[in-house]
Structure formats: C-alpha cells, structure tokens
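Model it.
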Amino acid sequence: MQRRKPLGGAEFAPETIYLNSASSGLLPARSAAAVRAALDESATYGTMGRDYFAPAAASRAAFARLLGTSPERVAIGSSVAVQSAFVAATLPAGSEVLVPEGDFSSLVNPLAARPGITLRSVPLADLAEAVRPGTALVAFSAVQSLDGTIADLEAVRTAARAHGARTYLDITQAAGWLPLRAADFDFVVCGAFKWLLCPRGTTFMAFGGQDREAAAWPAALHAGWVAGEDTGASSYGPVVTPAATARRYDEPHAHYSYVGAEHSLALIEELGVDTVHAHNTALADHYRAGLAARGLTPRPAPGSAIVSTPGIADAETRLTEAGVRISVRGGLLRAAFHLYNSTDDVDRLLELLA
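Modeled.
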C-alpha cells in the first residue's frame, strides 16, 4: 500500500502510538492553546469569558457545514444521553422504538427508560427489515462503538420513511471521518469528543428532514435561558418566545468545551472529511491485511476506520507497556485509526502482535 504519514502537521505530537480515537480523540494543539487562553481570561472575565456565545456559534456553524446543513438546524448540548432523553420525551405513550442489539447505552438507555415506550431490539443487519407499521422511531448508530460496523444508512432510512417512522441517528463514532448528511434523518446526534477531536462536553443535535419546517419541530422540553429568542429577556420565569431556530433546544453550554471545539472543527474542515476518510480507511485496511496474514479474523469488513479482533484481547496490557494506546470492548481488541496515525503506527502494532 501507499505509505501514509499523519495528517494535521504540527497539531499533533503524541507521546504514544494512539489508536484509541473510538474512546476519545486527541486535542489539536490549536484547541489546547485556545482553552488555556480561555482559562486565563476567566481570572478577569469569569468562567463565561468575554463572549459566552461566540465560540458556541462558530462551533455550531462548523458542525452544520460538515453535515451539509444550516446552523439554524443545529442545537448544542453536553451529552448524547441528554439528547436521547429529549427525543424519547417527544414520543407519545405507546410508541414503539426500534434499536439494534448492543448499540451504545447513551443512545438506547434514555429511550428504554421512558415510561410508556416499547423498546424492540434486533440485530443491526436486520434493522431495515424490522421496521413495521406502528414503529414510531428507529434509533441507531451510524458506526457501532463495539466493533466499527457501519450501518446500512440508506436501507434503514428508506424503510423508516415507508412506514412513517422517524429516524434518530447517532454519529458519534462516524462524524469526522465518514461522509454524512444531516438532511437524511430526523434527528442526528453527535458526541464530538472522539473523531471530531473536541473537548468532552461538546455535543450537537441536528434536525434533519429538510422538508420539515421549524414549526413542525417538537416542543423544547429541556430548554433553559439560552433557548430564548432574546436571551437577555429569558432569564426569569417561562421562556415566552423560544428561538426561531434549533437554538431553542440549546443547553447552557460548557464554555471551555466550545472554545476548544471551534478550533478542532476548523481543523477537520481544513483537511476535509473525504481526505480523512481515505486516510483512516487505508490504514485500517492495511491493518486488516496484516491480521489476516497472521490467521486472525478482524471485523467488520473493509470500509470502517475501526478494526476489532477476537482472540487477542489479552494483548492490551503488553501493547500499553510498549507505548500503544488501544482498547478492549466486548472481548475484542479495538483499534481506531485517525488522521494523526501513520503506516508506521500500523506496522509497529502488527509487529507487537506477532
């Protein structure tokens, strides 16, 4: 294969071979510098900084561009679980929610905990065929956290529309390396601290279905003062006039997280998701080939930036001692290849596994 050097230049200088982006991404140097400056600023201007809203607005706009939508259709928050609880609360009692077996708990558990909802789980491969009349919502991850399997997005979207079901897509393990469009799904949520390289506490919710106007969006059930059209007039009592855009669903955000996010998302934009996708999947496929040559059977099939392998989970400790950051999930050794990795990183990992 073509030898690949890391992308991002001087933005990254990891002291380890970092193959754990599926757990948490590395923070670019520019983002770390911005957060440090914001911390210094807080000594004079308080923990909301000089301008509480500017970094969040810039982050919102950058995320929207990455998903091919407008900032007016993007809300900001703190966690996928909070957004899932919001989506669950929009469903009427008696609704059936369809999810893949073993999908990530932050997506699934708030739906399961909603009284009056029937949660039905099927294997991911059967998800599209399992949509039926009466299914109100199909909630699933674009890329499975456990092993990196990519869902058949088009098949699920088509089946859901055929039966009048809404779709709720979690792109936490996909955004930043897998090209996606927010307009194809009703709700799109993303914890941005993994492949988008943002600080923890940065989460986005995009309202897709471009044929659905804001007037048809659900009530802002968890909105606070930042969700008012005029934030200065929304600090006390009920918010009389919610924002006309998806900002009506904003949580009061963690300022430092979005200070860093503004710069991390700018880096992803500069590089381009298509470029990152080609880089990541080439490294992952090189690793798959090396595993297969050793008689191992990695999963999923080529095309994912995550490669999970049964039978070698006990290598994690040895790899950590050798300076390789990697993870084990469900008995699988999970390697996640991102823009700061290189062919040399893959070769070193294969050497250590040998």
